[in-house]
Design goal:
The protein has 388 residues and is of the alpha/beta class. It is 38% helix and 15% strand. The chain has helices at residues 4-19, 23-38, 50-56, 96-109, 154-175, 191-198, 218-253, 309-318, 367-383, and strands spanning 43-47, 66-68, 86-90, 112-117, 129-132, 141-145, 148-152, 258-262, 281-283, 298-302, 321-326, 340-344. It has a five-stranded parallel sheet with strand order 2-1-3-4-5, with helices on both faces. α3 runs parallel beside α5 and α7 (218-253) runs parallel beside α9 (367-383). The protein is globular and about 60 Å long.
């Protein structure tokens, strides 16, 4: 029988493959959104999980035009939204009544809403366009662990569907003769300077770039292929190291603390989700959360594509075992020390997936989907060694 880690990886790959069947619906909703955006409509993101909005708005390799819906966190609609606007929404059916009322109010206001969620979501009838993740309603933990279900999948698939909508929106804008502004990662040498030059601009000036549009769905398929390439690499070369992380975590957990620090816009919203088995103490350095490391602890860093010097130094000075899961490893920046487990997350340096013909930078970050899935893959690996 396959390990729980393998089963979780199977579920992620199957979920992403299933989204390919949704590409016609995604492209159709994105085309409607592009028509509105090119005519001056604004583009808003909304969810009952704050990580979805954080992942899509003002994000490295993401669209400058996407912004969190004002009041969306409390499901209260203010005067920001007008007829002609667009909303990309996601749900885990956490607050169906309040979120449903907000979706109805958006429709009454004249906004075009595309909703991402489970096929049996109670909110499905409330949106004009629906993108089915193929999951049950809720956080969708996919592994059986004793009497419990652990390791959620809905967050990763919701943001995957959101990025598919974004790339198809950009392609549809290109077909209308407009080049939307994408940000660059601030970790790149020119990223911050480029982003400052384009700050607040939803589209490039006429003549600045001419993106050659692709057939509807093609860019979405390329994006899906990039995520699946990352996961295939992890399966082919990293499962042994991930299993080692699980074994070390299980051995440590009885007497010490297993810390899991994660970097990414969506990761902070994973804490406390239904299906979290509670094996690790989660923390988020971007929120200035630091581990109180003690001898005997195990430190896991589920990171970006540049190594965090402060955390690396602290772990090397305090604990014998640590794990570092990083993308961008085609540019190696440190040499492993004894006791360290280094895992390649396989997404490329610069955190961007797609080359749009006629545009100057690659776009759409793979890291959000991969790091979110990796967080729960590490939990699954620990569950393989911790009796239920």
């Amino acid at each position: 029988m396959s390990s729980l880690a393998e089963q979780y990886l199977d579920s992620v790959q199957a979920g992403l493959t299933g989204l390919e069947r949704q590409l016609p619906s995604i492209a159709a909703a994105a085309t409607q959104a592009a028509e509105r955006a090119c005519a001056g409509g604004r583009v808003w993101a909304l969810s009952d999980e704050e990580g979805f909005v954080s992942e899509l708005q003002h994000r490295a390799s993401g669209l400058m035009m996407v912004r969190g819906l004002p009041g969306g966190e409390t499901f209260e609609l203010d005067d920001s939204v007008s007829a002609g606007d667009v909303v990309i929404a996601a749900t885990q059916d956490r607050a169906a009544g309040r979120q449903g009322a907000l979706l109805e109010a958006l429709a009454e206001r004249g906004a075009a809403v595309a909703l991402i969620g489970a096929a049996d979501s109670a909110l499905r009838p409330r949106a004009a366009a629906f993108i089915d993740t193929g999951l049950p309603a809720g956080s969708a933990p996919v592994l059986s662990y004793g009497d419990a279900a652990i390791c959620p999948l809905a967050s990763a698939l919701n943001i995957a569907a959101g990025w598919l909508w974004c790339i198809e929106l950009a392609n549809a804008c290109a077909a209308l003769g407009r080049a939307p502004v994408f940000l660059m990662s601030g970790g790149l040498a020119s990223g911050r300077d480029r982003n400052r030059q384009h700050e607040g601009k939803f589209f490039h000036d006429p003549g600045e770039y001419r993106i050659v549009p692709s057939p509807a769905g093609q860019q979405g398929r390329e994006l899906l292929a990039e995520w699946l390439r990352c996961l295939a690499g992890i399966r082919a070369t990293e499962l042994g190291r991930i299993a080692e992380i699980g074994a070390v975590a299980a051995a440590c957990a009885a007497r010490h603390t297993v810390w899991c620090a994660s970097i990414g816009h969506n990761l902070h919203a994973q804490r406390g989700l239904d299906g979290d088995p509670g094996f690790f103490r989660l923390l988020f350095p971007e929120w200035d959360e630091k581990a109180d490391l003690q001898a005997g602890d195990f430190y896991i860093f589920n990171g970006y594509y540049t190594f965090p010097e402060e955390e690396l130094a602290a772990a090397r000075a305090t604990v014998e075992r640590s794990a570092w899961i990083m993308g961008g490893k085609e540019i190696e920046t440190i040499y492993p020390h004894p006791g360290e487990i280094h895992v390649n997350a396989y997404w490329q340096y610069g955190d961007a997936s797609i080359r749009l013909p006629g545009y100057d930078v690659r776009v759409v970050p793979p890291s959000g989907v991969i790091t979110t899935a990796m967080l729960w893959l590490l939990h699954a690996a620990a569950a393989d060694h911790i009796p239920s």
